[in-house]
Amino acid sequence: MRRATFFIVFVLISVLFGASKEIELIKPYGQDIYLTRFAAVVLNLGESGATKVVTKVGEGESIERTIPSDRDFFCFTVELVEGVNKIYVNVYKGDRVLYKAVRTIYRGSMIDKKLKYSTKFFHKQFFHQTEKEKICSKCHNMKMNEQKGVAFENITESNCFGCHYPVTTDKYLHAPATNWLCATSCHTGKSGRFNNRYKGESKYLYPDPIAANCFSCHKKFKEKFYGEKYRHEPVDDGRCNRCHDPHGSDISNKFLRKKVWYLCTTCHTDKKRKGHVVRTFSGKAHPTKGVKDPTSKEGKELTCISCHNPHVSNNGYMLRGYMGSGRMLWCKRCHKK
Q1: What digits encode the pLDDT tens for the residues 19-56?
Q2: b/e map of 4-27 (b: 16 or more CB within 10 Å)?
Q3: 28: preceding bond cis by omega (within 30 degrees)
Q4: Is the pLDDT score of 141 beyond 60?
Q5: Nearest to 57, CA basis, from 35, 75, 36, 84
Q6: Under CATH, which number does the domain 16-125 receive?
Q7: CB within 8 A of 21, min separation 6: which ones?
Q8: Model pTM greater than 0.70?
Q9: Distance CA 17, CA 192 (A)
Q10: 141 and 158 in contact (C-beta within 8 Å)?
Q11: How far is residue 195's CA from residue 162's CA, in Å, rounded to a whole number?
């Protein structure tokens, strides 16, 4: 009798929730590390008849997406915050929940030391390998269709566009990204001395450091950067992408990851806590923001780069321009009285 009762309950559960067994959250894998603002979500819907999916990242807003009726797989992107992200995925058929899943992933920072390295719980996991790409090949052409140096007349014709378009939604876009020449310009599958441990793990790995790729277009900077006496650490390491986002930026046409003062003080935290090392006669720290730059014809706000060159300099302390020996002479650029 007990066996019969158990069997009936099992059948009822299977009828009511059986579709959930056909659904699988393929990506994110969980415990992944991302360095971009976006993560792809890929669902295998099987024959569940699912009609919508509701996602939420952390404490953020829930977003509902309608699933087309002819889909076995459904994919989209979610935006991440820096640090740990919990991604909640609920799949529905009408108003009935068929499937629930949670994935915890990590978005690292190229500049913020606190977020640069994750715990051992998270690790890099790459998707673009031949076997893994077979999952998407039913709906997507997984072959790279770029021609080196030839921009797409219609960027939607890039086989990369359908999944990766969110990386080019910023106000200011870098030329390789806006023309969808990412795979032939930067994501070449090659590695560098800082990421050789990942060699061969992705078709579209990029070399770290990235400077050699950058200099292939920005040729004048190569001569300048290695022709002066002092170099800023990211320049010396060839890691242009620590300060500049190679895809684009909402902040600056120089593709900065943050506004100048906030960008500089993510590393130079002492200037944020204690103020500038230079003291005025009043004993107060020299301002680094919040006042006008006396050297700016456009009346721009004073920032760190009003005085310091962020790349290279022939002066100590990475000071701009050459004013002879002695810092007081250099200060007279602004303090002329």
Answers
A1: 445 899 999 999 999 999 999 999 999 999 999 999 99
A2: eeeeeeeeeeeeeeebbebbebbb
A3: yes
A4: yes
A5: 84
A6: 2.60.40.10
A7: none
A8: yes
A9: 49
A10: no
A11: 27
- Domains of the chain: which residue ranges? 16-125, 148-258, 271-337
Q: What pLDDT band is residue 327 in, cutting at 50, 70 and 90? A: low
What residue type is assigned to position 318 of the chain? M
pLDDT in the model for residue 118: 72
Q: Is 307 in contact with 296 (CB distance < 8 Å)?
A: no
Three-class SS of the chain? CHHHHHHHHHHHHHHHHHHHHHCEEEECCCCEEECCCEEEEEEECCCCCCCEEEEEECCCCCEEEECCCCCCEEEEEEECCCEEEEEEEEEEECCEEEEEEEEEEEECCCCCHHHHCCCCCCECCCCCCHHHHCCCCCCCCCCCCCECCECCCCHHHCCCHHHHHHHHCCCEECHHHHCCCHHHHCCCCCCCCCCHHHCCCCCCCCCCCCHHHHHCCCHHHHHHHCCCCEECHHHHHCCHHHCECCCEECCCCCCECCCHHHHHHHHCHHHHHCCCCCECCCCCECCCCCCECCCCCCCCECCHHHCECCCEECCHHHECCCCCCCHHHHHCCCCCC
In the chain, % of residues over pLDDT 70: 90
- β 230-231/96-107 pair status: unpaired
β-pairing verdict for 83-93 and 33-34: unpaired
Structure tokens at 150: 């030839």
Instruction: Please give the backbone phi and psi of residue 169, each rounded to the nearest 5 degrees, phi first.
Output: -105, 5
Q: Residues, the chain, total?
A: 337
pLDDT on residue 38: 95
